[in-house]
Amino acid sequence: MTIETTVRPIPSVRRINPARPATRAVVDATVMGARRDVLVGCSAAVPEAPLVLPRPCDEENLRRGVRYRMLYPDRARSMPRIARQLGVLAAAGAEIRTAPSVPVDALVVDGSRVLLPRETPAQGPCGLVLFQLPSIVTTTVELFDRLWATAVPWNATEQPSEHGLNERERALLTLLSAGCTDVTAASRLGVSVRTVRRAMADMMNRLGARSRFQAGVKAVDRGWIEPQAM
What we know:
Distance between the termini: 55 Å
Oligomer: single chain
Helix content: 40-55%
Largest sheet: 8 strands, mixed
Radius of gyration: 20 Å
Structural class: alpha+beta
Number of domains: 2
Number of helices: 8
CATH architecture of the largest domain: 2-Layer Sandwich
């Protein structure tokens, strides 16, 4: 939908210029007004993204009983700053999952308001629009729910190490490099086989490896696991 300055503004849509100080304030005010639930979709794990940036009011909302569901790309698990922020929210009760990719940034409050990015020549790639149109809100929520159903849950204790891996990832990579099957590794770590395969695919992507053996070699070269693991 295009809104030009020559037409009368539509009450249910407000444009927000992220270059102005009010932008983050508007996003914060929208989130602070949550009464039931907040959905957060993040397409790129960028700490400064105005829609998905963890904010103090998130923890306050969780204390008030607002349900949070937050969806991030898998690579967020290996980014220490973001992982720490998400770990705090997970410990406070937020439900967080990751998927190989998330197609759009979105923030939905109480199933009635949605903030989406907008790219125009005037606003640049970070323009934001606040919608209250039911059709747009419903479409956004449906997309979120489809992605959520296949995403991998975030463990509240999961934190990346100084090597770029969290402890579970290091343990998994060590087990698989030692010759354990996916089933055996899953059993030892207390996770599902699906989680093992998703985690391994993510590590291979981060390492630029075409096989698990190559991933193990590269992990040793980077100091992610001990040489004897090979």
